[in-house]
Amino acid sequence: MNLDVVVFAAHPDDAELSMGGTIAKLSKNNLKVGIVDFTRGELGTRGSADTRQKEAFQAAILLKVAMRENLHIPDGEINLSKENLLRAVMTIRKYKPKIIFAPFFNDRHPDHISVSKIIKKACFYSGLSKLKTFIKETPQEAYRPQKLYYYMQTYTFNPSFIVDISDTFELKMKAVKAYDTQFYNPDSTEPETFISQPGFIKFIESRAQFYGFKIGKDYGEPFYCEESIELDLVSTLSKSH
């Protein structure tokens, strides 16, 4: 199955927190979006790998993604090894997305940084015909996505562009809150973490409002690209008439 977009994330809930509104918007416009989690989040303080998996699929259903899969790399062991790089390359060649999203390359969590580095390298190496990969003994074709965009997690950056998610913000937050074990719950008896504090969800909401305000909308999600991005000025001006 070929996809339009693949979103790579270190842990289940990363994609929803960072760009759930954009995922929902793309799906709403009949584009095929896939989410690929590197780990099951088994080192997380709250919940378990099994509960995270169930929550991840509930969120995926809400966002109406075309597929969600897990690479089953051990949590905390996301390093730029040949094995992990090849897993990413095989995934890119399998789905042939036009656009890939990955975590921004500077962040509070080391796993987010590692995924960012792996995906940047995988996007390039996936296009090398002499790098051979196989799925069930069937050789894969070399393939390179058109663009790699980075989404924001904890640390901020100056965005290359901002996506208006005003019409999908509520759906984004429903997908985030599908991770019942991870975020604030006054009835929970589990230890408090960085993301389970009441203020964290408020931070996610406020950030969406902030970036929405910067483009004159209610809510927005910021993205960064290391390359120049073309603006179709004629099309933009035509829509404004």
Q: Would you write up a description of this structure?
A:
This protein is α/β, with parallel strands linked by helices and 241 residues long. It has one domain: Rossmann fold, CATH 3.40.50. It is 39% helix and 15% strand. The strands form two sheets. The chain has a seven-stranded mixed beta sheet with strand order 3-2-1-4-7-9-8, with helices on both faces. A hairpin with a 2-residue loop joins β5 and β6. The radius of gyration is 18 Å and the shape is globular.
Question: What is the fold's blueprint, element by element?
Answer:
Blueprint: E1 5-9, H1 14-28, E2 33-37, H2 49-63, E3 67-70, H3 82-95, E4 99-103, H4 110-125, E5 134-135, E6 138-139, E7 147-151, E8 161-164, H5 169-177, H6 198-214, E9 220-224, H7 233-240
Parallel strand pairs: 1-2, 1-4, 2-3, 4-7
Antiparallel strand pairs: 5-6, 7-9, 8-9
Helix pairs in contact: 1-5, 2-5, 3-4
The amount of helix comes to 25-40%
Q: Give the strand content.
A: 15-25%
Instruction: Give, in spatial order, the strands making up the sheet with the most strands.
Output: 3-2-1-4-7-9-8
Overall domain count: 1
CATH architecture: 3-Layer(aba) Sandwich
Order of helices and strands: EHEHEHEHEEEEHHEH
Can you tell me the CATH class?
Alpha Beta
Named CATH topology: Rossmann fold
| Structural class assignment | alpha/beta
Mean pLDDT: 94
Distance, first to last CA: 38 Å
* Major sheet description: 7 strands, mixed
pLDDT < 50 stretches = none
Give the count of helical stretches.
7
Shape: globular
CATH superfamily: LmbE-like
Rg, Å, rounded:
18 Å
Number of strands: 9
